[in-house]
Amino acid sequence: HFLADGPPPSELIEAMRAAYIEAGPEIEITSMFPRPMDFGPIANVADEAWKTFARWPLLRAALGWLFFLGLLAAAWFFTH
Predict the structure, then answer these.
(1) Range of 66's domain?
(2) The whole model's pTM is what?
């Protein structure tokens, strides 16, 4: 009816005039505090590994390069 060239039907006009729009409920301010996240035993192992790498930066760099070179070798292997 809204895209028609002629005027809308009288039933539609009456229904739109009779409709009452009411806003939703008022905003309630609440406070939520985040709980500490528990990642399980894997997080503890990862934390210990991170502390080990933090103590030995050369070991961290060497393992990082080995990981990068391993990714390059895997990419070369799967493309040839």
Answers:
(1) 43-80
(2) 0.37
